[in-house]
Amino acid sequence: MPEHFFDLVVRNARVVTAADVFSCDIGIRDGRIAALGTDLPPGARDIDAAGRYVTPGGVDAHCHLDQPHAAPIRMADDFDTGTRSAVCGGTTTVIPFAAQQKGQSLRAAVDDYHRRAGDKAHIDYSFHLIVSDPTPTVLHEELPALIAEGYTSFKIYMTYDDLKLDDGQILDVLEVARQRGAMAMVHAENADCIDWLTQRLEAAGRTAPRFHAHARPMLVEREATHRAISLSQLVDVPILIVHVSGKDAVEQIRWARGLGLKIYAETCPQYLFLTAEDLGTEGEHAYLGAKCVCSPPPRDKSNQDVIWNGLADGLFTVFSSDHAPYRFEGEDGKHPGGEAVAFRHIPNGIPGLETRMPLLWSEGVLAGRLTPQKFVELTATNPAKAYGLHPRKGTIAVGSDADLVIWDERELTLTNSHLHHAVDYTPYEGMQLSAWPAITLARGRVAWDAAGFHASPGRGQFLTCGEPTLAPRRA
Ligand code: DUC
Ligand code: ZN
Ligand code: ZN
Known about the structure:
It is a single chain. It is built from twelve helices and 19 strands. By secondary structure, it is of the alpha/beta class. Strands 1, 2, 3, 4, 5, 16, 17, 18 and 19 form a nine-stranded mixed sheet that branches. Strands 8-10-11-12-13-14-15 form a seven-stranded parallel sheet. Strands 6-7-9 form a three-stranded parallel sheet. Helix 3 packs parallel to helix 4 and helix 7 packs parallel to helix 8 (about 245-260). One zinc ion binds near residues 187, 242 and 243. One zinc ion binds near residues 322 and 324.
């Protein structure tokens, strides 16, 4: 009998799950939660969490790490810096994308992505697939085989020349999702509308970053969202619409839910905390707006309210970062060589892996907009269920991995120098927050605490995913 049954006991925790808040000790052994109870015997190490909320570690089900790009564009974060940054902000599982290039086999894309992950990850990870070239071989051989091996989700793009599928191709891919029980994620923006608007803006000399939002107004997202819903209805398969930005798309999703369709939806911090004004002003500082260029673009204050309401009332299933780590300075990012480039050439996406959880805890839970249980549902439990990782991930229960966040409620000013990603800015610079993780445990090991980040490259394990286990919801 070892001297201590538990490797670690977190005492007096105010445990939050998607269903409840309750007080207890958490006994951890071999990286898993072995007991929940009061007055547990001492562990080899005890942490007193008295008075603090303890939530499941976050599952960031939409982030991009070391995804290949045509030169000179390059992602700043790989599996080392990206997962380091994630865990310092309370996220303990990430699901980035193994992206198929047109002409490439899907299997080759997956093999390449495993090489990129190598033994760098500090926390556990799975892969979504991106299907950009649904050839007969992909549809009938590669995709079914990969789903059977545990790659049970994939993203479909309705825009971007190098990624987009036409409606017939989308139907083909959705049919595979239906037959094999996979989850299809959809980037819903109308490519032809964006091209048409972009050409006219460029012809008028309107190429500054803020015109990115003019090229992608809400109706572009609304039309594609409606079409994606219709395609899913035709095939009779659930889909998850990613990075929903505002009212128009939300209305489409509510309508579909009202019909009883299984349409799930994701939103992201940029649609709560940024507006189109962050894409820049006129004049000499216009180029700074490139820092906030992402797609769909942020909207306005009234749309932020729509998104908050959707988080609170169950319209949204998951809350992800959509971390897309492009530097601002340098040759490979958003402001290449210090030159302002036309918005069409600015890589779309912003960093957010480390800030996702603190932003939502602080401005959602502590500001009274969301219950602690809703926070857990959106940031951990539902993403784990949507992508077949629950109950190993996304909850606090006996047998689950000991991925935990012990929250510290304190005032702080967000600044990029405190973050651990390899990006040279945060879009949330200067924001006042009321909380940050005091301690993050990743499979029972302290990965972040008052002393800082405790590296363990290669400790992160690749996780195969099962079938989605989300229950249908109306909202
Ligand atoms: N879509 C994403 O999901 N991420 C970054 C850019 C984009 O358009
Ligand atoms: Zn997208
Ligand atoms: Zn993305």
